[in-house]
Queue: 3 jobs
Job 1
Amino acid sequence: MHLAHLSLSNVRSFRRLDLALEPGRYVVAGENGQGKSNLLEAVQMLATARTLRSGTDLDLISWDAVEEDLMPAARLEAAVNSTAGRKTLEIAVIAQETPPGIKPTRASRRFRVNGVARRASDLIGQLRVVMFSADDLDIIAGAPALRRRYLDITISQFDPAYLRALQRYQRVLEQRNSLLRKLQERRGRADELDFWDEELATAGALIVNRRAEAIRDLARDAQARYGELAPTEREDLAICYEPRLPGDLPEAAREHDLAERFQRAIVDERREDVRRGVTRWGPHRDDVQFLIGGHHAGNSASRGQQRTAALALRLAEVELSTKRTGDPPVLLLDDILSELDAGRRERILHAAYHVDQVLITTPDIDRPTAEELPEAFRYRLADGALTRLS
């Protein structure tokens, strides 16, 4: 899989960018603040229909466009070649119309696949990416919500059934919590929960099963990668899934059995859910633990160990995505190589030769060196423009 063309219009620091691409390794060098991360995050958004940064959709639109245009819009377009053929992907982020002199405060997103209007879920997975960035440390040491987000983004790219179940689960959870709050105020009847409990259990069982399956593969490969990245490290990396299920429900149970048992369990827990006004059990409260030498990496591991664990996880993700689809993802390396020692840098670049395309950003045009990536296409990024270097 690789990008054949990328076009950005009014996307953050890019007023206009058109870039023809082919399989290979690309190095984009630029000083801080020139938009290197914006470039890779645009590619990542075309793959996942979401941006990694917090904020509103309006933040994607170039500030200059917001100042100059009556209805400013950001447009992201890509042509993708894969084993399934060639597809075109488009995202438009359009600011709301406002009276003259009033800046917009909101924006909406629209999606197209091969020129046809689609939902965001239809876009996800058409382009698959694995992005390495400094923020990956948050997966290891951050809040549980960040680890759930990582799982959702990773699995959704190669498992459409997971994505559908996740969307259904989120809608049902919102409805169930709303009803729980009404019951807490003694409005409504408890049997109104029957439908939502069944729907929650059905979608939740699929999510738990697919998460457990993905984490088993990730854990095995990440453990091996951790040993390769840190050959002098005596302690092993382990990744453990912690589903938030009531009682002793096993996440490894067959999906149908798990759904039935999950439904019975949450019915049994209704009284306490009503008292608190919130659903206490289910994959929306799952967590993943990273253990180094049997200790929680987020609490006790050094920064270097956490970084190595994050790199090992991303390398395992590349393997998992390739294994599930038969087609390797596009790798995005956002300004991380300069922070790695020679051994870790070599291991990461070694992975770059097992995929079709890699996009690397760096503040130093000479790193990675010509010896490390002798056939790389090299560009300089300045003032929102890319210049090809000989």
Note: Residues 193-229 form the longest helix (37 residues).
Job 2
Amino acid sequence: MKRDIIVIGAGLGGLVSGAKLAKEGKKVLLIEQHNIPGGCATVFKRKGYTLEVGLHEMDGLHEDDFKVNIFRDLNIFENVEFLEIPEFYRFTNERVDLVIPDDIDQAIKNLIGVFPDEELGIRKYFDVIINLPKEMFSFPKKKWKQLLLFPFVPILYPKLVKYPKMTVGDFLDTITKNDDLKLVLLANLGYYHDDPYSMSMAYYCMAQSSYYRGGAYYIKGGSQKLSDYLSQVIQDNGGEVLLGYRVERIIVEDNRAIGVEYRKTSGKNLEIKKSFAEKIIANAAIPNVVNNLLSSDEAAVLKSKTMNLRNSCSVFSIYIGFKKPIKEIGNKYYSTFIVDSKVKNQTDLANCVKGDLSSKNFVFVDYSQIDSQLAPKGKSVGSICTVDYTSVWENLTKEEYNKKKEEVAQIFFDRLERVIPGIKQEIDYYEVATAKTVERYTLNPQGSIYGYAQTLEQAVPNRIKQKSPIENLYFASAWTFPGGGFTGAILSGYLCAIGILHNQWH
């Protein structure tokens, strides 16, 4: 049977695009290599604990957040519950211990309280990160055609036009000389990128301002709730979701995508199957499309556009089940960013993430601070997360790999113990995931969870768009505009669907 749309991959970009197109009457077939939908928006269960794979907090849901329209359109708010996070984050190093609220005025007040001589720089920081996105998106949010074709038109704030041409690190150097203030403001840099001196100021402002304007949220019961719901939308609207099948090739004739070849990822019946459709959406990593799903001739133009692009970092995570809610032993905060004593400035911050795992900055997320419903009654879950790279784990035997994971986990537990005394003795279960783990489960090369890195040269407005050089082949993932993260993937998927529905991709 011929479909209207085949979606390759059930990450959030694929799920959102598939759900929107199915809702609008398109016959959708979604094919996912894993046995559950969601990509990084998934959970897994161990010893009664529900452990969150990727979501710590989702930004936004304020009046100008594009996700609000998307969620309303797909009836997500009626079917998925979002829990507001009590504050943005706590930052701590040997010199500063400071809580940053998600309220702009209170955040400014808290920062000035610790850095009284830096008031002008602090106010400048918030002025730019809040107003720059308004400049870039200076049109009514319902005008999707303008977003597709002219995503960054400076109209409202022309005095800010220089900042999209800067890196975050360079911007911070212009507003303050206080290195600790810069580190506090960059605490959650790992949500987007690994180096302030190469990260796009435009992308940083889009994401960071959304936290300050709308707060942060977690999905009650885990991010799998969102993924499962979107998968169900596809099926409820006449679509089909195949789990445990991997697409082996995109079928192209006369530079036009017409179908896919796919097979089961396990079991006895592994013969190749074919399905055909009017349009193909690749939620797969673009490098995989180039290197694995297309022939060299078919991929030539796309390869020339992407071959020199740099992939993003990956993550190292420790998923933890605790014997009791960690708030009962004195922890008051949802996200605590712990910065190593060796990190004194932005350059150290960039070098630290590529150094020894034992001295990397990391975040501890305490899901017991909200009604997450991830743990049995009287218990709780949490996670430790830091930037990681597959290169750290290469050329190791299985035994060496497991030993290194355990050694690094114990180092992080010891460091966390110094910030939250008594937490080690409450650990009931833990599991370690590296960049190699991410690569294995998501198929993203090098475990690159954010797609192409958000460097100045690769971020908006230069980001790869949803339309490929091959006719009827589209992209919907972290690898395209606007970029990685939950919000980026959701926007990418929806924009892809809207462009297809309204024939805006040229």
Note: The chain has 15 helices and 19 strands.
Job 3
Amino acid sequence: MISRGAAGDPALSRCVACGVDEFGSEYWGRAPLLSRAAELAGGFDDLLDPSAVDELISRRGLRTPFARMAKDGNVLPPSTYTRGGGAGAGVGDQMADDRVLALIADGATLVLQALHRTWPPLVAFATDLAGALGHPVQVNAYVTPRQNQGFAPHYDVHDVFVLQVAGRKRWTIHQPVIEAPLADQPWQTCREQVAARASEPALLDAVLEPGDALYLPRGTIHAASALGETSIHLTVGIHPVTRSQLVRQLMQAAQHDPQLRVSLPMGVDLADPDVLAPHVTETVAALVRCLDAADVTEIGRGVGDLLRRETRPEPLAPLAQLALAERLDGQSALRLRTGLRLRVDGEAGRVRLVLLGRTIELPAAADAAVKAVLTGDVITPAGLPGLDPGEQLTVARRLVREGVLVLA
């Protein structure tokens, strides 16, 4: 299960002018969608603005790969915009603000990567958006000087929302050369086809102004160039769980079938199609039987494990959590940590909560209390069912220390 936090999909609604249901049925993974600022609830400068970019570069000690730079379609060597951190830092690749300044003044684009891990407003936004979509989310920012293009026409292997923060940027969009590409099908493997498609009439040619948003399904070829002023936009990457992931889970399950582990015969030429044909037929038949009997619960566990690895829940404050556990009483208001993905397994005499890289074991008597926690409602230790007052505080403290419950 996943903790979604507040009701509704406010993060997603900020990005699309149509209804959420319409976006899911008509555009998600299918077609680009341009949403103008006048059609949306507000701009995006609360998520990032020029002063935030300056702070990240000059005061936050960013290192590669959390930032990179490009010019004329080419990624620049890190040595051109980084240097050692000075006394006590012990690192050699922190962003050098003076070098970044010189390169931007010379027309280079600055890319701030993984802002869903480093900039608080975008940490919260990405957590909410991932909860609404049910797919992992990343956020990058692109700062492009006037009249410059940071990257050549290309496509991404994940869906993106482009959120224009400041300045204006012209986007030219072309149909894919590979439909719904996977991670092992990047645009660099078909540069010539991408360049040829980008020379054709554009599917969409539009200027994004502050507050505008653009959705692009993975594989959509795009290029962007700033116009009369420095442009800042956010690229929100959505890494969709695809049917190919289900195929991988099914193939892993098939390995447990003894009929699919049988050795092929010896003393024959296994490269000979006539020799191989009956074994292929038998293998396909065994595979079909195995797939027909697939356990959806097990497949769901595999997908859940993937999502736990790829999705970051609401950040924790370790010292605040410890202090909360110490002062906890029966009336302390608590809630499930937003975006936390966990699985509950029952065993004889135990309740097991499976999280990323660890398992929390509780006595069977805590089963009803755990179910109350997983509703996502605000709870108090005194409201946990099936436990006496001492047990209620013990379970609540354990879940606070484990980062499952946080202060409501």
Note: The chain has three domains: 11-238, 243-304, 318-407.
